[in-house]
Amino acid sequence: MKVPYKWLKKYVDFDLSSQELADKFNVTGTRVETLTFRKSTFSDVLVGKILKIEPHPKSEELFLCELDIGKENLSIICGAHNINEGDIVPVAILGAKIKNITLIEKEIKGVISEGMLCSPMELDLGEEEAGILILDKTFEIGRDLAEALEINDHIYDFEITPIRPDCLGLIGIAREVAAFSNSSLKIPEITFKETYIKIDDIVQVIVEDRELCPRYSARVVENIKMRKTPLWLQVLLKSIGIRPINYLADISNFVMWETGQPLHVFDFEKIGGKKVIVRRAREGEKILNLDGKLRDLDSSMLVIADEKDPIAIAGVMGGLDSEVTSSTKSILIESANFNQANIMRTSKKLKLRNEASNRFEKGLDPNSTIFALERCAQLITNYMNADIISGVIDVYHSPVFTWNVKLRPGRANKITGVNISKKKMKDILSSLELEVKEVKEDNEELINVGIPTFRMDLRKEIDLIEEIARLYNYDNIPSILPIHSQKGGLSRRQNLIRNIKETITSQGFYEVWNFAFDHPNNFDLLCLSEKDSLRNVIKLQNPISKEHTIMRTTLISGLLNSISTNMMKGETSIQIFEIAKVFRPKEDQLLPEEPLYLGVAACGLIKHTHWLEKVEEVDFYLLKGLLEKICELLYIKDLKLLTLSHPSFHPGKSARILIGRRELGKLGQIHPDVQNNFQIDLPVFIMELDCNILIEESQKQVYFKEIIKHPKSTIDLSIVIDEDVSWSQISDIVKEVGGTGLEELRLFDIYRGSPIEKDKKSVAFKLSFRDPEGTLTDREVNMIRNKIVKNLKEKLNAKLRE
Amino acid sequence: MNEKSFESYLKDIEKYLKNSSIEVEKASMIEKLEEIYHYYLGRKGNITHILRSLSSIPEDKRPIIGKIANEASEQIGKIINEKRDYLKEKRIEEILEEKIDVTLPGRQLKLGKLHLLTKTINEITNIFIGMGYIVVEGPEVELDYYNFEALNIPPDHPARTLQDTLFITDRMPLRTHTSPVQVRYMEKHKLPIYLISPGRVYRRDNIDSTHSSMFTQIEGLAVDKDISMAHLKATLEVFAEKVFGEGTKIRLLPGYFPYTEPSAEVLVQCQECMGKGCSVCKRSGWIEILGSGMVHPHILENIGIDSEEFTGFAFGMGVERIAMLKYKINDMRLFFENDLRFLRQF
After folding, report:
1. Chain B partners of A607 at a C-beta cutoff of 8 Å?
2. How far is A142 from A73, CA to CA, in rounded Å?
3. DSSP B196-241
4. Are B26 and B163 members of one domain?
5. Residue that wins the pLDDT comparison between B159 and A529
6. How many CB atoms lie within 10 A of CB B288?
7. A412 occurs within a structural domain
C-alpha cells in the first residue's frame, strides 16, 4: 500500500517530517517497507496563460506567443497548433531543466524566444507527443507546475498485515496517524445533486446468495461524457503504482485506494434486462474477463450476472462485455461486501489476485460500501458533469453493528509487564476512535470499549491489549528475565546425536545438509528394482520443481550427488556425512515414519598427497573403522558384518551391519553401474545406518574395570591358512582359547604369494596376555600359544608359518 | 687414616691430580664429568676429605698440605669446567647436524567440520539450555491441525496466503514452522514449559539467494504463571548478546502473527555497520531477525490450559538468516550445495 506524504497531510493534521512519520509508523505497527523520494523530471516550469498568439514574422510554421507567468510576461516561439489565446499551459522559463537538459535563450529565425511551452511527453505527464499540454483553469498562474501537481513528494510503501484491511485505504492509515500523533482526521465531505429519476425504476438488484454477498450497494450515473483523467489523479495513480486507464476506472481505483473499499463500474447499457443478479456460477458457465482471458466457472464461485450471463466474477474481476469504454454513456457503480473466504478460494482457484480480491479476502467492513459509493459518484459528477440517478440500491439483510469488548486494566499490565495507568489506556483507545466507558463489574473496574465496524480485528480483550501495547510503544517495556527452574538441557538421545556427529568429524568427515526432497529418477540411478521398498514414498501434492517431487527414503542419492558435484569442482579427497530424517509411509497411520538416518560417503584419497605420508585411497575399511569408532563411543559390543546383496552395492565389497540380531544398516562400495549413473569416476564407499537403532543399542552406563598392574606378555603368531577362511573365523577361535587373559589381539599382516602356496594366505597377529593374579611365566604363555595353534589347526586347518 | 703421613698425603694428591686429568680427558658425556667431580671434589670426595682431615697432621705441615690440596682442587675444578664447556658446545654442534626444515607442512591429522547450520543450531540451543530450556523435536510431515488450526490459522484465515505451503495431501502439509512441535508438547506435558524446537521446515518458495523450499528454524516457547512481554524482551536480549556479542542491542516493533498477541518483530543492530546505517540494513541501522509475541490465549485454551492463570511467550527465527548475518554469507543456496570449499570454512 503506497501513500504519498502530501496526500496524508490532506486527511489528517499532524506536525511530523516524513522521516519522523515513518519512524512513528514503524513503532506503532504499520510497517513502512520503503520510504522513497519521488522527484519530477523537470524544474522551473511555471503555469502560464497565453495572452496573444501572432504569426512568426519569418516562418509560417511558427507562432509568437505572449505569456503571462504572473510576475512578468514572456515572448515565446512555439510550433504547436493546439493552442489558443486564453489557454493555461506549462511554461519552461530560461534555466529550466527538462529531463536533464537546461533551457537557454534561443534565437529562432531572427526572433528571441524567452522560454518554451511544454508537451505532456516532455514533462512525463502523458504519452501524447504532439501538442502542448493544456491545463485546466483551476491552476494558479505563475505557480511552479511540479509544486502545483505535488510531484516532488515522499512515498511510503506500507506492508499491511492481513488483519488490518482498513489500512489498505488512505483513510485507515490517516486514522493511525491521528491516533499516534494526537491529531484530528479530515474525511472529505460529500455533496452532489441527484436527478429526479429514481434508481429503483431503472434497475433491479437481486442477491441470491446472502452468505457470499452480505451487502450489495449500487448507484447509476447517466449522461457520461468521457474525458481525460485530470493531471493530479494521473500523478497520484502513478506514484501509488496503479496504471491510469480511463477516467471512470481511474476514479474507482482512486476511491478504493482512499477508502479501502473496492468498486466496480459496469457499462449500464450492457447489463441485460437491467437486472443485476448476485448468484453462484452455474456449472459450465464461462466468462471473458477484462484481461481478455476466458475462464471456466463453477458453483463455488460467486458471480454478478445480468438476466442471462455472468458479467463479473464477484470481487475478483469484471467481464470484458460490460467494461466501460470511451463510448460509455451510463454506468452502474457497484460497492459490495463479499465473503472473504469465498473470495480467497475463488482467487486461488483461478490464480487471479489483484487489488480488489486482496482486500476482499481479508474481510472488509460491510458498513463502508455506502461512503465509497457516494464518494465515487461525487468525483464522477464533479469532473464529468454527469447525472446521478436518485437513490441508492442497498441490499443489506443482516446489518453489522458496533460491539463491545471489556478490558481489565490489570490483565493488560500482566501481559505487557508494564504498569500503564487506566487513564493512559483510555486515552490510547479513544485515540483509535473506540468508544471508551469505565464500568464496575463484580467489584472489578473495567473499561468497556465500543468497537466501530471498521476495526473488524478487535474482537477480544487480548486484541485491545495489543492496541494499548503498540501505542504505548514497545520501547517502554522493561526487560526482566523470567524466574524459573526446570529440568533443562539436552535429552540423552540429543546428546548422543551430537556426540556421534562430533566423533565422525573428528575422523576427518565433513557434515553435509541435503534437501529432504528427492527425485524418483534417482531410484533408477541407484539400480533399484521396481519392487524395492525404497520406492514406496511420500509424494508431494504440489511440488515446486520436477527435481523435488517426493520425500527421500534414503540418504544415499543425496550423498552421491554431493560427491559428484564436489568431484566436478576438482576435489580429490571427499569424506562426508549427513544425519537426517528419511520418510516412509506407514500402514494404519496417517503420518509417515520419519526415522533418523546416518549416511557416510567417501571417495578418492583418504589424505592428500603429502611429502611425508603414503598416499592411500579410501576403501571399505575406512568406513568400517569409522563404524567401529561410533560403536566404541556408544559402548556397542556385538557388531557383526554379513555379506550384503543389494542392487546399489558392489556384490563382493559390501556388508549388512548387525548389532546382535538387529539390522543396523549397510556398508560397502557402491556398485560400479550406480557410480557411473551418478557420473563419478572413482569408487565410492557408502555407509547408511538407522540412528534410532544405534541409540537404542547403545549402552547407557558403563562401570570402571580394575586396572591390572602386572606386566603383559606379547607374542606374535603367523599362520598359513586357506584363502576363504575369514578373519572373524580366526579371531573367534583365538579369543575363545585365549580366554580372559587375552588382553589384545591385533592383526598386523596378511600376505599372499611366494613362498605361500596358491589359495592360501599367511596371517600374522600379535597377542597380548595379562593375568590379574600375577606375572605370567614364559611357560604359561607358551602353553596358551600352543593351545591356540592346535585349535587353529584342528578347526581351520591352519599351519604355523616357519 | 688419622696417622697418615704428610708424604702420603702429598702422594695421594699427586695421584688424584694425575688420575682426574686422565679421567676428564676420557670423559665424553657431561654425566661422567659430574661423576668425576663428585669423586674428587664432592662433599665426600677425595680432595675434600684431605682438606677435612688436616687436623690429623702436624700443625706446621698443615698450611702446606692445605695449600697444595686447595690448588689441586682448583686445578681439577678447572679442567672439569673446561671439559664441560667443551662437551656442551660439541653437543650443540651434534644436535645442530640433525636440523630440519620447520616450514615443511605438518602431518595430515584429520578433522572434519560440522555443517554451519548444525554449528549455529548448537550455539543457539546452548544459549537457551543455559537458561533452563529443553529441546524438543517433532515430525516434519504434519497434520494440518498442528501446523495451522491449533495455531489459530483456520482454513480460510488470511494468514494462509502469507506462506505458501507444500502439501502431501490436503490435510497433511510439510510443516511450515516448528510451532507444531510446541503444540504437541503442551498437549502432553505439565506446566511450566520452557522449550526450544529446532528443525527443518518447508515452504513453497523457489530457491534463490534469500529463499529456499527447505530451511531451518528455531522456535522457543515459555508458558508459566505471569509471563509477560518484559520477560520476552529480556530473554531475546540475552540471545542477541550471546550470538552477536556483548552489547548488541535489539528492538521490538509491533507485528502480526496469528499465534501471538501482542506480536513483535525483533530487530538487531545491523552487524555490517553496527547501527550506523548502510545498504545491508537499508540505512535503518537495524535488521529483522525474528518474530515473537505473547502466545495467543486461544491456543492455550484449545490445548486445555487456563489462559487466565498461565501466559506465555513464543519466538521463532530462521537459522540460515542468523548464520548469514553472523558470518556475512550472501547466498542461502550455499547451505545446501555442500561444496567442500564452503564446508571447510567454518
Report:
1. 108, 110
2. 10
3. EEEEEEE-----SSS--SEEEEEEEEEEEET--HHHHHHHHHHHHH
4. no
5. A529
6. 17
7. yes
Using DSSP's 3-state secondary structure scheme, residue B308 falls into coil
Residue B213 at interface with chain A, using a CB cutoff of 8 Å: yes
The C-alpha atoms of residue A782 and residue A788 are separated, in whole angstroms, by 10
- Look up the CATH number of the domain holding residue A644: 3.30.930.10
Per-position DSSP letters for B29-83, written without gaps between them: SHHHHHHHHHHHHSTT-HHHHHHHTGGGS-TTTHHHHHHHHHHHHHHHHHHHHHH
B-proximal residues of A, 362-401, CB under 8 Å: 362-363
Q: Which CATH number fits the domain that encloses residue A172? A: 3.30.56.10
Closest by CA to A73, choosing from A36, A114, A103, is A114
**B101 is a domain residue:** no
Instruction: Tell me the three cell numbers of residue A571.
Output: 576435489
Residues B23 and B161 in one domain: no
The pLDDT confidence band at residue B162, using thresholds 50, 70 and 90, is low
Judged by phi (left if over 0) then psi (alpha if -120 to 50, else beta), residue A753 lies in left
Cβ–Cβ below 8 Å for A162 and B161? yes
For residues B7 and A489, the model is more confident at A489
Phi, psi at B268, each rounded to 5°? -120, 150
The Cα B131–Cα B58 span in angstroms is 89
Question: pTM for this one?
Answer: 0.86
Task: Cite the beta strand spans of A612-741 per DSSP E.
Answer: 639-643, 649-659, 662-670, 684-690, 713-722
Residues written for chain B: 346
| Confidence category of residue B2, pLDDT binned at 50, 70, 90 | very low
The minimum CA-CA distance between B112 and chain A, rounded to whole Å, is 4
Give the pLDDT confidence score for residue B1 in this predicted structure: 42
Q: Which of the 8 DSSP states describes residue A388?
A: E
Residue B131 has pLDDT above 80, yes or no: yes
Interface residue A483 vs chain B (CB under 8 A): no
Q: Domain ends where: A356, A372, A396?
A: A396
Q: Is residue A441 part of a domain?
A: yes
Neighbours of B37 (CB within 10 A): 18
Q: Is A34 on the interface with B (CB under 8 A)?
A: yes
Chain B residue with Cα closest to A27: B253
Write the single-letter amino acid at A1: M
Nearest to A228 by CA among A97, A99, A127: A127
CB contact under 8 A, A416 and B230: yes
Q: What strands lie across the sheet with A684-690, from one edge to the other?
A: A510-511, A573-581, A596-604, A684-690, A662-670, A649-659, A639-643
User: CB neighbours (10 Å) of residue A705?
Assistant: 6
Would the pLDDT of B95 be above 90? no
Q: Is the pLDDT of residue B96 over 50?
A: yes
Decide: A674 and A522 in contact? Cβ < 8 Å.
no
* C-alpha cell belonging to residue A509: 568427515
Cell 445480468 sits on residue: A306
Instruction: Please report the pLDDT score of residue A548 as a whole number.
Output: 94
Q: What is the ipTM of this complex?
A: 0.88
Helix ranges (H only) for B97-217 are 116-130, 144-147, 179-188
- Band of the pLDDT at B161, cuts 50, 70, 90? low
Q: How far is CA A446 from CA A449, A468, B181, in A?
A: 9, 15, 37
Q: Which grid cell is A183?
A: 491529531
User: Does A425 fall in a domain?
Assistant: yes
Total number of domains constituting chain B: 2
Give chain A's residues under pLDDT 50. none
> Among the three residues B47, B63, B96, which one is the final residue of a domain in this structure?
B96
- Residue range(s) defining the domain that contains residue B315: 116-343
Closest CA to A93 of A113, A110, A123: A113
Give me B337's grid cell: 550445495
Which residue among A476, A501, A536 closes a domain? A476
Amino acid at A35: L
